[in-house]
Design a protein that fits this description.
370 residues, alpha/beta, Rossmann fold, 2 domains, six-stranded parallel beta sheet, 16 helices, globular, binds uridine-diphosphate-N-acetylglucosamine, binds uridine-5'-diphosphate
Length: 370
Amino acid sequence: MKIGLIFGTRPEAIKMAPVYHQLKKNNITVKVILTGQHKEMLQQVLNLFQIESDYNLEIMKENQELSELTGRLIIELDKIIKKEKLDYILVQGDTTSAFVGALVAFYNKIPVGHIEAGLRTGDIYSPFPEEINRRLIGTIADIHFAPTEINVKNLKKEGISGNRIIKCGNTVIDSLKWIIKNKRELLKNIREKYNINNKKYILLTMHRRENWGKPMIEVLNAIKDYINKKEDLYVVFPMHLNPRVREIINKTLKNCKNKILLEPLEYLEFIAIMEKAYYIMTDSGGIQEEAPTLGKPTLVLRDTTERPEAIEAGTAKLVGTCYKNILKYMELLEGKLYQDMLKVGNPYGDGKTSERIRAYLQKIESEGKI
Ligand code: UD1
Ligand code: UDP
């Protein structure tokens, strides 16, 4: 069995890493086809998880537009897929790399397995363009590796037959647990390096396209005004490399007192900082999944989420992006709400998702049908 893994951004690499190692460990031939949609942020993850690629299209350009990225990727991925005789192609999540990977696999009649299938907000512009990417991948895919029961239901509602859906958790928990188990000592040293071991800090990340402009400005202004009133509270903000995001951050947080602006952190470093955060504010998908494992209350800086499980479990709140609401929730977290949200648990997986994916692929291979 020869399996192609197509991916190209930081979160896909984090979530593909355990699958890559599971397949390799079981002597399955793996071809890693990187789109290079991300560059530095992808490389950090490849190094940490020791992923060796067979191809890297190095497609990234500064400030890339979606249409151009999509167009160039279709042409370049097609050449590789035509050359390699793959039995299955696996894509992860909802990025442009994942969508184009699935599309080109379909053009070449290669069955597609979708990891992290069935996440939906119901709003095609939120997150943008990810909601459409994952719906389109869902239409193309032959096998749907769905993290949770809610994801399974979403897929069934769209008419996907139950025997093509495998409920298996999210591979991000496999990665997170691997780090916590194998790199525990390093985590402590990292916090010392950033001089935050004894500080009380909120961990912030923001990068989504639909938040560019007014939503991001309002959120950052609220955080700045709140932090400036406090003596001992810091905001730690590892910034995405996107120049459009950085421009807003630099302008809006210029007069914010206790801010620690950082370059994108290596995954290991990010987990170390997440572990000791007072709470998290984020518009990230992956961080919404990791935070409950670490028992971190999370304010989700978006109007919609495809990950309602943590909200239902009470560890996360969907707070939108309007100035007043952000301030309101930051103030509420000074009181009882904080204790209510301090729960450890994980609706997204048990750390064995990649094993289930590998086992399912071996099963269909031996049975000769999906
Ligand atoms: C992409 C995904 C998004 C995912 C995010 C994870 C799409 C449409 N979006 O969004 O779903 O949540 O990755 O981070 O697939 N850049 C660098 N170096 C890097 C990475 C990015 O300089 O290593 C800069 C480049 O100028 C690039 C820009 O960031 O053009 C935007 O990258 P892009 O992949 O288009 O969008 P993201 O916001 O990263
Ligand atoms: N992450 C990281 N370094 C950072 C910020 C985030 O390694 O500086 C990790 C984080 O732990 C999570 C993933 O990157 O696993 C989320 O990536 P991102 O927020 O860019 O994308 P999304 O999950 O929203 O698609």
